[in-house]
Write a structure and sequence with these properties.
43% of the residues lie in helices and 22% in strands. The protein contains 3 helices and 3 strands.
Length: 65
């Protein structure tokens, strides 16, 4: 299965997404802000990013660009 980066600053939502994706066999990396998302994308090859728009540090639009 794929590696998925979850970028969500609300812990309960982040955990819910992570648990459900791991339950079907995906490897998940969870971060809480845009800056951390960019750092993780530099370190790891990810197949999919689940990206919130309203984030601390750097918002989702800037991460997407």
């Amino acid at each position: 299965m794929g590696t998925i980066l979850i970028v969500e600053d609300e812990i309960p939502i982040n955990e819910l997404i992570k648990r459900n994706l791991q339950a079907v066999g995906h490897r998940c990396i969870s971060v809480m802000d845009g800056k951390a998302a960019l750092e993780e994308m530099d370190k790891h090859k990810v197949d999919l990013v689940v990206l919130d728009i309203m984030l601390p540090e750097i918002d989702g639009y800037e991460v997407f660009n």
